[in-house]
Write a structure and sequence with these properties.
The complex is a heterodimer. Chain A is mostly helical. Chain A has seven helices and three strands; from the N terminus they run αααααβαββα. Helix content of chain A is 62%, strand content 9%. Chain A is rod-shaped. In chain B, the strands form four sheets. In chain B, strands 3, 4, 5, 8, 9, 16 and 17 form a seven-stranded mixed sheet that branches. Chain B is of the alpha/beta class. The chains are: A mainly alpha, B alpha/beta. At the A-B interface, α7 of A face loops of B.
Amino acid sequence: MPAAKSVADFLGWLSLGLGVPQVVMPGRVARSIGVRDDRGTRAWMRVVGVREHAAAAGILAARQPAGWLGARVAGDVMDLTLLAIALRRKDRGRRRPWGFGSVRPEQDRRRIRMAIGAVAGVLVADALAAAALGRGSGDGSEEGAPQTKAAITVTGDPEQVQRTWLDRHAGNGIGMVRFVPAPGGRGTEIHVATESSMESVKEELRRFKQLLETGEEARS
Amino acid sequence: MRATVWSGRNTVQVENVPDPQILNSRDAIVRITSTAICGSDLHLYDGYIPTVERGDVLGHEFMGEVVETGKDVDNLSVGDRVVVPFPIACGNCAACKTGLYSLCENSNPNAALAEKLWGYSPCGIFGYSHMLGGYAGGQAEYARVPFADVGPIKIENGFTDDQVLFLSDIFPTGYMGAELCDIAPGDTIAVWGAGPVGQFAIASAYMLGAERVIAIDRFQYRLDMARDEGHAEVINYEETPDVVEILKEMTGGRGPDACIDAVGMEAHHAHGPIHAYDRVKQATRMESDRPHALREAIQACRNGGTVSVMGVYGGFVDKFPIGAVVNRSLTIKSGQCHVQRYLRPLLERIENGDIDPSFVITHRMSLEDAPTGYETFKHKRDNCMKVVLTP
């Protein structure tokens, strides 16, 4: 899913690009989108900025950023709510120190509408990217690609090893299993692809090898 | 039964623990008649080997009498006298079949732990941490011996315990250290550490045709044994300014053809600040092992020579002289000893009178005195070389 991943990365960097000014200069950001610049707005702006930092870190660092993109969708909804509240406020705009109320209220209202449009667009991009990555992540299993791949080499030829394997795992298969002759008479490679955890698969492979080769499971 | 258990750093206690039971059909139970404290047990004692837990039974050098066998052990009978090799090996896997018993692929039930530290897991070892299997050790009255049909060697010729006990570890370990040197006529072999493994490496190097063997240590009584029993030339590194230069001079400027590290992870350095550097790094877990002997063995080895590492290392070292290895075409060989493959030929060496391994024993104690044995051995009190415990 490389395309979705690169979109996700772009959204991650976008988060960072928005988050930094929101935390560093919340007043200027507020004014630029036509929202009244006061202590409450600045506090909210900083909260949103910190949230953007978290989303950026999550998306850019995670191997499976789908969840973080979901968080971004939720963040977009929060932003739309805050902007809608700002639009309905009567005294939007920049308040002058000497108390004559806001200036250019129409221009501010237009800026807020533009901000709402931008956030709505990003919301769509976030939702699409999250959905695309979620499909590829395997937990939904639409594409049926198991996560864990492990292998072990045991003595014996593939047919014999496969027979023993089927005897032991009758009715409780642990995933897709291949039996491949190891080169140079090194026995048989057992390759397992499964959705189980790496630890449990390797443990099962080791136990199988112990039983096959020594007739018993090592115990201490 | 009574057993020596680890109970924290620098502490062992002899306690009552449950008697071992047959768990698998290839197990045997051995009533221990002699057991020894190994230099590598001191690494456990000093707390440098991870995954040792309070209550773990120590000891991997032991011999005794078979008192019970699982149904698939057909080569041993109750009453047989056996020496038990310290690596636990199945004899069936690819590693065992090629003689690499200490790399047995089936004997470590905690292989996942070892893989985290080392990439892959070696065999299980008696009494040597959970990472290496969590098997109860042999400094006890009884031990459960897995794969008893593969490991233990029967002693049928009336030798005393003292003469054959060290087939379990230190004699084969020293021998393998010398064997890895691929000794050719005229070769000079330098051995760092004149402890028990060093003594057997010296003796083995001569058995395998070395012209000269040079032992390096700082304890004069150990060097005396190397000289008197092993016929080695000796260097006390605390009394010489530069071991590498002296070795160079002693070998006509060529350097030793092969160097054996029989010291391992708790090495000492004659220069205070250098010793302190690695001591601090080890204490703060910035490196797990102090590699003074290994560094010096590499520096001292002749161009194109072999460095054979038999001292135990556990993890990671600092300031490893890889430049010398690469630019001077050195070969480094190592491994926990594949004891099973040396048991028969080395027993024959003893039978032929080539060697009597009991020469290293300096202290005999009751199993109950194991705590004293550990302290005496660790601090080299009373010229301690090797402690044998009798349950």
